[in-house]
Amino acid sequence: MGLRLFVALLLALLPSCSRGGVSGADRVFSLVPRSTPLHGHLTFDILSDPKTFNPALAQETTSTQVLGYLFRGLTRVSPYDGRIRPDLASRWTIDPSGLKVTFRLEKGVRWSDGVPLTARDVVFTFNRVYYNPAVAAAVRDILMVDGKPFTVRALDDRTVVFETAKPFAPLLEELGVEILPEHLLAKEVDAGRFNTSWSVRTPPVKIVGTGPFRLEKYVPGQYILMGRNPLYTPPRGLKGPIPGELPYLDRVMLRIIPNQNSELLRFLAGKSDLIGVSPSQVPVLSDAAHSRAFRLLLRGPSQAETFLTFNENRTAPIPAYKVAWFRSRRFRQAIAFALDRKAMINVIYNGLGAPIPGPVSPANKAFFDPAVFRYHHDLQRSRALLAQDGFVLRKGRLYDSSGHPVTVLLMTNTESPERISMAQMVQAMLSPLGIRVRVVPLQFNMLSTMVLSSHQWEMLLFGLTGTLDPHGNATVWRSSGFLHLWNPGEKSPSTPWEAEVDRLFDQGVATFDPVKRKEIYDRWQEIATREVPMVDLVSPDAITAVRKTLGGIHPTPLGGVIPHISLVTQKARLVIR
Amino acid sequence: MKGRWRRFFKAIGFTGTMLIVLGSTSLFAEFLAPYRYDAVRFDLPYAPAVWPSFGKGGLVVPVLTLKDPVRRRYVPSGQTVPLRFFCQGEPYTMWGLLHSSRHLVCARAPGRLFLMGGDLFGRDVFSRLLYGMRFSFLLSLLGVAISFTIGIVVGMVAGYAGGWTDRILMRLSEIVMAVPALYLLMGLRSIVPYGLSSEAITLIITGSLSLIGWASLSRVVRGLVLSLSGRDFVLAAVSAGATPARVIFRHLLPNMRYYLLVSVTLSIPAFIVGEAGLSFLGLGLSEPHPSLGNILSESQSLETMNSAPWLLASGGLIVLLVVLFNRLGDVLREVSGEGERNGR
Q1: Residues B183, B266 share a domain
Q2: What pLDDT is recorded for position B194?
Q3: Nearest CB to B316: which of A15, A282, A348?
Q4: Cα of B282 to nearest chain A Cα, Å
Q5: Taking chain B (344 residues) in consecutive chunks of 10 residues, what is each chunk's mean pLDDT?
Q6: Are A343 and B320 in contact (CB < 8 Å)?
Q7: B184 and B89 co-located in one domain
Q8: By the 8 A CB rule, do A551 and A4 touch?
Q9: A126, A454, B12, B208: which has the fewest C-beta neighbours closer than 10 Å?
């Protein structure tokens, strides 16, 4: 009796002796060419429901992703080189003073309900929506120079003039924000209902845009179906490789699947065409690429990066001696030297990632300064820097000059298992220095309250997605910035280097000459890496798995694998045997 | 002497022996585990099992190198390190008292002995399981002690006193039983301040599990008290002028001892599973401290199932412990049945 029980339990204890596949039956997918690559369907999964269909109110990525198919801005950014290309505006002239830009709208653009797009729509969008204090528009802050809005005027039906109080270099890029129809939304603004208009409960036909697709059906928790917009006028210069009206696709179907594992299994089962892959999913996918007819596209380091930052706020409700550690440059540099970024990449990103030396990702070739100081793993230097600051090591624990043991709470958000793992690695990597780290994972909302309003935190491991134009970092790096995490919303810069960074950002935003701008932002990167208020860690590679049925797919360094959604084709049908 | 030990093992059977072996193994985890639970090797993520083999000069451990970091494929580097017994390894303090650095076995870096593979940070899963099992044992014994104390006292008082005391106490236990356990635990856990030490968190988890564990026991104890207090020997004792304490401790408790013993063994699995559930949800013991639940929770993604299925071993260990304790309950019930028949 006993022996049999023992054997049965032993079997339970050895769950698997082999590394098998997880995807079940070994089906093979084959491709059957379609008679035409046009009129195809594209299906992929998104993690959550959109919160709104109003582009001015959309904040989280699901809503903005969906709205990107339905709406357009005056300009767009080329995903290949980061240059500004025409979209709703076909051309523009910049006044030599740098204070005035005149846009000429593309001819014959109509809203998806047939009404022509005019300069009045542009003026309405800025003056009545984005600059309206009653509207909860997230983009208002980036459409300001020194806290002053642009002056937007229509000269005639197709000409709009933007004037700024000071020269504003990223103006063209920022004008990629969505243009809204005046004939439908003006009455909502007048009635004070704009913040609730075009919600997810609005009937799809009432959402009217100028994008390549229009909303056809939305079933909450299940899917969003978008059909081709027959009135779409492609931007100037956008031409597909094959004849046919743009967009080539007839339908885009977004299924809402709230779990990444299920999304992966659905992709492997042939139920979606495209999936963003995290590095740890690559081993599961790479074996199946041939039999399941897809390609894995590696696009190099992404713009998403992880960093470690310290609470340098003297008024924060944490012990003053801890703030004193964090305000010391040597202490921050010691931490930066103690972290082994290569190990982080190998452990967390399966080797598919890159160390990030500074606030600008190496993927951003236009602005990355290769001369920035790089922190490599060097415990000797860490120890030397700490010793210079009066820290002493006794019985394997570090004490500061006044005898306080160095123990810190490291907070991160629970939603990201990768960040939690990374925080645990930081914990293990700082322990040889005698620093005790306690990892505290908190839910995102609670974490942001603690960091931004109650300031009750010590060290934070978090991530931000970089912006193409360095000016997008102003909310983080300007001492008065809302996301100036280590000391949010300072009244005046508390250190000379923060004052210099403030000055650099003021100069950078007013300089149009690309060479001079780069010099200014290079200087910022050098200060940022020397002072390390944020210890930049690693960035995963951007990877996408794409079914071989799709055409018009090109991995680009900046914009995913779809250079323009209207150029995507469906070349073949998938047959599952 | 020898005969007595044989009788003891015969009485508790195979199951009890297994439990004693597992329990003492985990008690000496610091010595038996080749590595500390938080000894990381970031160059060996999800390393497969590495067993010693016979080589030059006795048992050796092959050294692995990470050949393909994407798929976490390892190849033997050709180098080996000798496997030593009773050797000096990482220092530890056993039970908070004994400072030592002796381990049963060790393999020096760059080699590493992975009896059951490694986890994401290259920590030895076998060592972590030993520490995790100790945590499960301690937590369940402590939890059973607390919940049985409360349960027996409440049940005794309610059954013996009767009347309003009985009614109030029993309604209270029903209220406790009616609260959905998982939500109560999650609620309790969320009001605990962050940044507590792992010992404090252990106590809080145990406390919160026991807080809901006593109710059903108190009802059974009350029922037993009611049925026993009508029996002749109790009535005789009462009429002879025995104090309530004497009646309870000399007459009632001894007659319930087999029932209580069996239900202790049956409650322990509930605590083990309860801890595993909480840790799985991230509400239990926090990393890097191992518990069976948080080791298991590491294996919940598709990727881990693919590249490190050995992390599921902690699930197997949970099953093993639960089955063994349940089986022990059965064995004890059989023994007690025999005992009563034999008039002992």
Answers
A1: yes
A2: 67
A3: A15
A4: 9
A5: 68 81 88 86 88 81 86 85 81 79 81 86 90 87 90 88 87 87 75 72 79 85 86 86 83 82 84 81 77 83 81 88 86 69 47
A6: no
A7: no
A8: no
A9: A454
pLDDT in tens, A145-194: 877 899 999 999 999 999 998 888 888 888 999 999 999 999 999 998 99
pLDDT for A17 equals 40
For residue B69, give the nearest of A16, A261, A350 by CB distance. A350
Least confident window among A114-123, A256-265, A462-471: A462-471
Q: Rounded mean pLDDT of A42-46?
A: 93
Count structural domains, chain B: 2
The matching CATH number, chosen from 3.40.190.10, 3.40.50.150, 3.30.420.40, 1.10.10.10, for A40-52+203-298+545-576 is 3.40.190.10
The segment(s) of chain A belonging to CATH 3.90.76.10 are 68-194
Q: Give the DSSP letter of residue A58.
A: -
Give the residue among B73, B51, B22 at the shortest CA–CA distance from B124.
B51
Residues B307, A409: C-beta atoms closer than 8 Å: no
CATH H-level, domain A304-540: superfamily? Dipeptide-binding Protein; Domain 3 (3.10.105.10)
Cβ contact A283–B72 (<8 Å) = yes
pLDDT of residue A14: 47
Q: What pLDDT is recorded for position A499?
A: 92
**For the ranges A288-297, A496-505, A516-525, B92-101, which has the lowest average pLDDT?**
B92-101
pLDDT of residue A111: 95
Q: Tell me the sheet residues that pair with A305.
A: A464
ipTM: 0.81
Q: Which residues of B touch A (CB under 8 A)?
A: 13-15, 18, 38, 40, 42-43, 45, 66, 69-72, 120-122, 194-195, 282, 286-288, 301-303, 305-307, 309-310, 312-313, 315-317, 319-320, 323, 327
Q: Which chain A residues are within 8 Å of B199, Cβ to Cβ?
A: none
Range of the domain at B73: 50-113
Q: How far is CA A440 from CA A92, A203, A312, A322, A428, in A?
A: 51, 43, 19, 17, 14
Of B69, B302, B315, the CB nearest to A261: B302
CB contact under 8 A, B312 and A15: yes
Same structural domain, B175 and B64: no
Write out the two tokens for A32.
């059957």
Residues sharing a CB contact under 8 Å with residue A333, sequence separation 6 or more, in sequence order: A375, A385, A532
Q: Residue B316: its chain A contacts at CB < 8 A? A: 9, 12-15
| Residue A125 DSSP one-character state | I
Q: Which of B70, B120, B306 sits opposite A421 (nearest CB)?
A: B120
Q: Does domain A68-194 sit in CATH 3.80.10.10?
A: no
Q: Is residue B236 part of a domain?
A: yes
Which positions in chain A touch B69 (Cβ < 8 Å)? 346, 350-351
Using alpha carbons, select from A530, A525, A483, A474 the residue that is nearest to residue A502.
A474
Question: For the domain that residue B263 is a member of, what is the CATH number?
Answer: 1.10.3720.10
Cβ pair B303:A283 closer than 8 A: yes
Q: Is A340 helix (H, G, I), strand (E, B) or coil?
A: coil
Kindly report the number of other CB atoms within 10 A of residue A195's CB atom. 17
Is the pLDDT assigned to residue A384 strictly greater than 90?
yes
Most distant CA atoms of chain B, gap in Å: 84
Helices B198-229, B232-239: crossing angle, 10 deg rounding: 90
HEC assignment per residue over A483-518 = CCCCCCCCCCCCCHHHHHHHHHHHHHHHCCCHHHHH
**What pLDDT is stored for residue B241 in this prediction?**
84
Tell me which residues of chain A, numbers 274 to 303, contact chain B at a CB-CB cutoff of 8 Å.
279-284, 286
Nearest to A563 by CA among A553, A573, A574: A553
pTM of the model: 0.81
